[in-house]
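Chapter review: from sequence to fold.
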Amino acid sequence: MPVISVIISCYNQEGYIAECLDSVLAQTFKDYEVIVVNDGSTDNSLRVINPYIRKYHNFKLINQKNTGVCTARNNGIAQACGKYIYPLDGDDIISADMLEKSFNAIESGLGDIITTRVMLFGKTVEKELVLRETDKYNLAASNCLVNAALFRKTDFDAVRGYDQKFNKGLEDYDLWLNMVFRRGLKIYRIPEILFRYRIKNEKESRNLKQIKYAKALRRTLERKYPEMKLYKIGWKLRKVFRRIFHKKKP
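The C-alpha cell string follows.
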C-alpha cells in the first residue's frame, strides 16, 4: 500500500499536464501512487496522460464527465489507498523533494496540514507568492495556503471532503477552514519554496473566472464558519497593536 496518494485533477490542460506528472515522477520519496482524474477534458489531455498510465504501475486514471474540481478531487481521494493525501492541479509543479519533506514534517508532528512557500511562474515574472502566517486569525482574514498540501486521509474523510457549494471557487479555502476550525488541526509551512503555482491567461485561468463569484462564496464561508468574524476582529486588533508597538520602538 502506498503511503501518499497524489490526486491530480485535470480539465483541458494538455499543454501543462506532462510537466506536472514529470515533477511527481522526479520525487525523491518513492512510496506514492498517482490518481489522475480527467474531469471531462475536451482537448488532448487524455492523449498526454495515457502513456504515463500504461508505463507506470502506480499511476491510475479516473475518467468522468465534467462535474467540477470538487467532485474530481473527492472521487480521486475516495479511491486513494495512501495514509496521506496530496492534491495537485494538473498545471502546477512540485520540487523533487516536496513529498519527502512534507512526509517528514507530518510524521515528526510539526503539523497536520503541511504546506510550503510558493513560487509563481508562467504568465508572469517568477516571484514568490507572499502568504500570511498560518494561524487562525490570518486564516479567517484570507486563505493562507494554496490548494496543494499534505494531510491525512482520515481527517479528509472526517470533514466529508470538498463541499460542492464551492465548486465555483474557494473549495480549498473551505477545506482548510473545516479542518482547522472543526477538527482543530494545525497547519505547518515548510520554510522552503517547494511548490510552483502556474499563472495563466484569463481565458485559461479558473481563478480569474471565479472572481465574479468571490463575494457570494465568501458570504457562504462566513455563514458556514461564524467564528471567522470573531477571529477576523482579532486579526484587525492585532494589526493595530503591532502598528502601535512598531511606532513606539526607538
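Two observations follow directly from the output. The chain has ten helices and nine strands. The first helix runs from residue 17 to 25.
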